[in-house]
Design a protein that fits this description.
The chain is an alpha/beta fold. Helix content is 31%, strand content 19%. The chain has a single domain, classed as Alpha-Beta Barrel (TIM Barrel). The two termini are 18 Å apart. It binds 5-O-phosphono-D-xylulose and fe (ii) ion. 5-O-phosphono-D-xylulose binds next to strand 2, strand 3, strand 8 and helix 7.
Length: 221
Amino acid sequence: MSHEIIIAPSILASDFSRLGDEIKAVDQAGADWIHLDVMDGHFVPNLTFGPPIIKALRNTTDKIFDAHLMVSNPDVLLADYAAAGANYVTVHAEACDHLDRTLSHIRELGCKAGVALNPHTPAAVIQHVMDRLDLVLVMTVNPGFGGQVFIPAMVEKIATINDMIDGRDIIIEVDGGITAETAGAVVRAGAQVLVAGSAIFKGDNQASYSGNIARIRDAVR
Ligand SMILES: O=C(CO)[C@@H](O)[C@H](O)COP(=O)(O)O
Ligand SMILES: [Fe+2]
């Protein structure tokens, strides 16, 4: 299993009037994946976009599309996310009554299956689905908004999940408040995919997405 660090800019922090150009810009700036925050105004108190926009953006880059579904009933549109070109489809454990069924369905659609955990959700809820998982997304802020402050207590949870993985081919993603300052601790605990919105699109050097991505990469090298 490769432990190369994957940087996934969250386009939630980008200029929504120029989404396609923003994706091309971070692609050229060294992004590994593109993180797509889908919010339904119910599971989280914010609204973003869904399959039609993801489909429209699919032709702007060949990079992995990492769809983070912050929605109450993800099952109804799973096929649409797959058809839109999402490579990873991650659902929230808190939103799924039948998590194992939902994850199996995502894989049947040809996508990689992910589970996201809110900060207050214990790692143990994924114990029974470890055999049908490709990715665990540890939320390091409460979902719904970009630009929040990293919750340090999540580092221990990442380490717990890393132990639970126990050699399986499952990667740990972290999302929320990830910067060059917080990246080291999460990577040491076992995180491999670093989602960053504000630190890349609204970082110290807004003119240089490549500089902002490089700062995070250098911090964990
Ligand atoms: O899922 C979410 C928020 O709910 C994230 O993907 C944010 O977009 C991360 O933004 P920053 O904390 O990096 O600004
Ligand atoms: Fe996200």
